[in-house]
Amino acid sequence: MPTIESDPATARRRLEDAGVDVETGNTDHERWRAERGDAVAVAYDDKVVVQGARPTDLTALLSDAGGRAHVYFDGASRGNPGPGAVGWVIVSGDGIVDEGNDTIGRTTNNRAEYEALIQAVEAARDHGFDEIDVRGDSELIVRQVRGEWNTNDPDLRERRVRVRELLEAFDRWSLEHVPREINDRADELANEALDDV
């Protein structure tokens, strides 16, 4: 259960600026409480306590921003097109910061890879990182996003534009193709999500 030493008024403003609804506390000791995803933040006089299944759904908004992270992504489609899923991992000098996976319906492998990349970069943004080094095992996606290869598929072009918009918001970013064994955790997460379909 993370405790964030923060002025409750400042923390409340950060949450409200991010579109999180903040409500009155449930007891005389609670100044306010807020929910987002699978996390609940409760403010006391000099601290904010975050609890729930995924506290990172709120801690990223409450913590001081900055720093650098490595971001790994992988998308999968069984059948191509077929059931699709994504997996991603964010790692900093302190270890794994966050990871996630999700099913995304019927799709192609390339669309799943783009969706995984979008979700991973959005998560890194939500954690407040200034710099990210993104790694994936899809050479096609990496080269398209870097502008080395083109695509005739309008849907993939749209996704490429979205990824570039997200990346350009960081102070510095890189995007590299890596072998599957370097990307094994993101791959594992995507396949776990598919196994549950």
From TrEMBL:
Any Pfam family hit: RVT_3
SUPFAM superfamilies listed in its UniProt record: Ribonuclease H-like
Residue span, RNase H type-1 domain: 65-195
UniProt xrefs under InterPro entries: RNaseH-like_sf, RNaseH_domain, RNaseH_sf, RnhA-like_halobact
UniProt-listed PROSITE patterns: RNASE_H_1
Listed CDD domains: RNase_HI_like
GO molecular function: nucleic acid binding; RNA-DNA hybrid ribonuclease activity
Source organism superkingdom: Archaea
NCBIfam families listed in its UniProt record: RnaseHI_Halo
Protein name as catalogued: Ribonuclease HI
Protein's organism: Haloplanus vescus
